Automatic annotation (TrEMBL), chain A:
Single GO MF descriptor: protein-transporting ATPase activity
Family membership: Belongs to the SecD/SecF family. SecF subfamily.
Organism: Azospirillum thermophilum
Keyword Transmembrane helix applies: yes
Protein name: Protein-export membrane protein SecF
Lipid bilayer topology: Multi-pass membrane protein
Gene responsible for this protein: secF
Keyword Transport: yes
UniProtKB/TrEMBL annotation, chain B:
Record localization: Cell membrane
Keyword terms of this UniProt record: Cell inner membrane, Cell membrane, Membrane, Protein transport, Translocation, Transmembrane, Transmembrane helix, Transport
Record domain Protein export membrane protein SecD/SecF C-terminal: where: 352-521
SUPFAM superfamilies in the cross-refs: Multidrug efflux transporter AcrB transmembrane domain (SSF82866)
Lipid bilayer topology: Multi-pass membrane protein
Family recorded in the similarity comment: Belongs to the SecD/SecF family. SecD subfamily.
Residue stretches spanning the membrane: 370-388, 395-415, 421-441, 462-488, 494-516
SecDF P1 head subdomain domain location: 243-349
Stated name of the protein: Protein translocase subunit SecD
UniProt xrefs under NCBIfam families: 2A0604s01, secD
GO cellular component: a single term: plasma membrane
Domain annotation Protein translocase subunit SecDF P1: ranges: 161-219
GO molecular function: protein-transporting ATPase activity
């Protein structure tokens, strides 16, 4: 009977041989991401920066130079025009207008009127105008959600497993998230509320993945009381490899259509999630597991040959 | 573990059937729905503004104006009370939230305090009275200060926002928008969601007008172009840029205000054919209006809307019927809008639009099409993968996945939840996570089989071992979604809701429904080996 297997059964890949390489590569990428976060920085969308986005569909293919000229003459700072979807679809972005929150409204109306005059028959398909105080709050709430989610993960895993597991998962999450932020910086994709949702989704997926692998390690700790931690971690990863890759594959299969046909709004979301799934899957193996190995070598079990002679020092296998 | 009591089987089948029935109204046409009982036809998922098109507006009440209003009221009141009490003063100054009176004679400060006390209102009390004074009055030497208390400020703010919401609701109802959502947000904000409104400009204009209407006397002797008004008067611009003149000198004292209006209608003047707004006063307003017009025949009477003079007709004869007309270069639409504003009443303070998100209906339709396409393709691809990987058990998982979607739709329908674009993404992601549970189970069963266990033992062990893992991984996601729901706004909330339901329901479909299918199959065929 034919069965699709992403990896052969009974693999014995010595993942922990690559533990240093994995951690170093990850750390370098994350540090680079943090640098990119500050310079050149993220392309904040209007959710977080305030400003105006107008999506319009012109009756014929849009004449970008003349539109740019017309809108540029309004004296409202930089006007970014972008084609997306078809040549008739124009995305207009304006910086946050000086003045109070209501100034955005005035500016949006002016653009609308100017469009209607310059290109008769233009259909305004979408208008978003966000003032400064609202965008500040949205950003603060988004960051708060990210922080609290992280904390909740830590506490939950700590209770369900041992602190080493919780710590390992959260450090891995931090490394994952910084890379996602770096991804936003490199690609220049809009960082907005949807981006926060995407990051939280990746966090969820990543933790989900780690929990499954950890779960197997905990179970194996009970079964193989004598096995060195390093071998045990390798064994656990190998045992769950088909599941890890299978799940990633399925999630990818359900997200790729989002990136392909999801329309402008969902496309970015899909692309980031695809990146996130690769990230989360690899970090389960190359980051979360090595951290656990370093932290748990003397503590999670005794009798490990790597651990020094202090065999009596460690705690018994986890509960 | 592998035995299902008969009632349990019935319960599982019943839940699935119920899910199917409850999700059905989402797929029926409008005509079919109309023939169904309303309680059933109404259990549908409503589409978010990003999917069906519409406008989302966040309005902010100008609290500074609310407080300024009260402070100015205290200044006026103080002037009157002090004059009545024969207390001499050199100056009355309005601060941000306090009024200071400089007395001519410090010896009169007790009298002044007593006079100002009459301006104090008690706020926060119930029907039986009580509450706290809204003004704190203090004196030192020749200075007397009346300060608005914190409680008073809070009370004002609450009143202002509640009143604003009421007025906003009335105004929007007049525009005929279907199913608007008008809700308070935070201390000084109002969220307005208008489904299907393609051009929110009219609504924004309606909401952006305070519509404080007053009737005041005009001083015809003073010249408004000098830029200086005599005491007790102010210069107000004309609303129309001046058909007759561009500004007027108007008495500050309000003779009649818009609160006394009973009704307002747009109509055409039978003689000139131009659009006018005719209004009708209530009994108090009528008698007041009659009194004023009687005493001021031959003088112009200004109709002031939001500090602009709409018109200033000369009173030809006393108006006793309590009816009047405002003419002022109206079009049909602007006359109608003014009538709406007057009928709905004045806002206690100006409203500012601080966030707008409008989606046109055809963009919304495009988004739905794209979203459904993504879900459909994703579902098919996952099914192909699952069947290729796990054969018969994979197809069980696919069926469970289908039931998962149906139950998620049913749950969202019961709650009348709003489906948004991120919500669709959430459903898709929920599919990915719920398939994870099935993969975990199938992989476990394979492992147990390879260890040489029998058919039943493998199934038993596979399910029970996978179960704790599934709970762990799903709970972490559920916790996060709860946070997302609490701190997220708008569409993000929808995303959190759909994923949470997806997770809860996948616990049922993956561990209960799939097990029932596997066990049933096992009992029927009694296979020697498992087809995983």
């Amino acid at each position: 009977m034919f069965r699709l297997r992403l990896v052969p059964d009974n693999t014995k890949i010595p993942f922990m041989n690559g533990r240093i390489a994995g951690l170093v590569v990850s750390a370098v990428l994350s540090i680079a991401s943090v640098v990119l976060f500050f310079y050149p920085g993220l392309n904040y969308g209007i959710d977080f920066r305030g400003g105006i986005v107008i999506e319009a569909r012109t009756p014929q293919a849009a004449d970008f130079p003349s539109l740019r000229h017309t809108l540029g003459q309004l004296g409202m700072g930089q006007v970014a025009l972008q084609e997306f979807g078809s040549p008739q679809d124009v995305l207009i972005r304006l910086e946050r207008q000086p003045g109070d929150d209501a100034a955005q409204q005035v500016a949006a109306d002016r653009v609308r009127n100017t469009l209607a005059q310059a290109v008769p028959g233009t259909q305004v398909r979408r208008v978003e105008a966000v003032g400064a105080s609202v965008s500040g709050e949205l950003f603060a709430n988004g960051m708060l959600a990210l922080g609290l989610a992280m904390l909740a993960m830590l506490v939950y895993i700590w209770f369900r497993f041992e602190w080493q597991f919780g710590f390992g998962a959260v450090v891995t999450l931090l490394l994952d998230i910084t890379k996602v932020v770096g991804f936003y910086a490199v690609t220049g994709m809009q960082f907005n509320l949807t981006a926060i949702a995407a990051i939280l989704t990746i966090m969820g997926y990543s933790v989900n993945d780690k929990v499954v692998v950890y779960d197997r390690m905990r179970e194996n700790l009970r079964i193989y009381k004598k096995m060195p931690l390093r071998d045990l971690i390798d064994l656990s990863i190998n045992e769950t490899l088909n599941r890890t890759l299978g799940t990633s594959m399925c999630t990818l299969l359900s997200i790729i259509p989002l990136a392909l046909f999801g329309g402008e709004a969902l496309q970015d979301f899909g692309i980031v999630l695809i990146f996130g799934i690769f990230l989360a899957t690899s970090s389960s193996i190359f980051i979360a597991a090595p951290i656990l190995l370093f932290l748990g070598e003397n503590r999670l079990r005794r009798g490990s040959p790597d651990a020094s002679a202090s065999a009596s020092g460690g705690a018994a296998a986890s509960s | 573990m592998l035995y299902f009591a008969r009632w349990k089987i019935y319960a599982i089948v019943l839940i699935c059937a119920l899910g199917f029935v409850l999700s059905l109204p989402n797929f029926l046409s409008r005509e079919t729905l109309a023939s169904l009982p309303s309680w059933y036809a109404n259990t549908r998922i409503s589409l978010g503004l990003d999917l069906r098109g519409g406008s989302h507006l966040l309005l902010e009440v100008d609290m500074a104006a609310v407080i300024r209003d009260r402070v100015e009221g205290v200044v006026d009141g103080a002037r009157q009370q002090l004059r009545q009490a024969n207390v001499g003063y050199t100056a009355i100054n309005a601060g941000e939230r306090a009024v200071t009176v400089q007395l001519r004679d410090p010896a009169q400060s007790d009298d002044a305090v007593k006079a100002l006390r009459s301006l104090v209102n008690r706020v926060g009390g119930g029907a039986l009275g009580g509450g706290v004074p809204d003004l704190e009055i203090a004196s030192s030497g020749s200075t007397v200060t009346a300060t608005l208390s914190d409680v008073a400020l809070r009370d004002r703010a609450t009143q202002a926002i509640e009143q604003s919401i009421e007025i906003v609701r009335r105004r929007i109802d007049e525009t005929g928008v279907n199913e608007p959502i008008i809700a308070r947000q935070g201390t000084d904000r109002i969220l307005v969601q208008l489904p299907g409104v393609e051009d929110p400009d009219r609504v924004k204009r309606l909401l952006g007008t305070t519509a404080k209407m007053t009737f005041r006397l005009v001083d015809v002797n003073a010249d408004p172009t000098t830029g200086r008004a005599p005491p007790g008067f102010e210069i107000l611009p004309s609303a129309e840029g001046g058909r007759t003149q561009s500004s007027y000198v108007v008495r500050k004292k309000i003779e009649v205000d818009g609160a006394s209006l009973k009704n307002a209608q747009a109509s055409t003047n039978s003689q000139t054919g131009e659009w006018v707004v005719s209004f009708e006063f209530d009994s108090v307003g009528s008698s007041r209006f009659a009194e004023i017009t009687k005493a001021n025949v031959g003088r112009p009477f200004a109709i002031v809307l939001d500090n602009k003079v709409i018109s200033a007709p000369v009173i030809r004869e006393p108006i006793t019927g309590g009816r009047g007309q405002i003419s002022g270069n109206f079009t049909a639409a602007s006359a109608n809008d003014l009538a709406v504003l007057l009928r709905a009443g004045a806002l206690p303070a100006p409203l500012k639009v601080i966030e707008e998100r409008t989606v046109g209906p055809d963009l919304g339709a495009d988004s739905i099409r794209a979203g459904l396409m993504a879900v459909g393709v994703g579902f098919v691809m996952v099914c192909i993968y699952m069947i290729a990987s796990y054969g018969l058990f994979g197809s069980f998982a696919c069926f469970a996945l289908l039931v998962n979607i149906v139950l998620t739709l049913a749950a969202l329908s019961i709650l009348n939840a709003t489906l948004t674009l991120p919500g669709i993404a959430g459903i898709l992601l929920g599919l990915g996570l719920s398939v994870d549970a099935n993969i975990l189970i199938n992989e476990r069963i394979r492992e147990e089989t390879k260890k040489g266990r029998g058919v039943f033992a493998s199934m038993e062990a596979g399910f029970s071992r996978a179960y704790s893992t599934i709970v762990d991984s799903n709970l972490t996601t559920a916790i996060k979604m709860a946070l997302l729901f609490i701190f997220g706004t708008g569409t993000i909330k929808g995303f959190a809701v759909t994923i949470t339901f997806g997770i809860l329901i996948s616990m049922f479909t993956a561990t209960v429904l799939v097990r029932l299918m596997m066990v049933t199959w096992l009992r029927r065929t009694r296979p020697a080996t498992l087809p995983v």
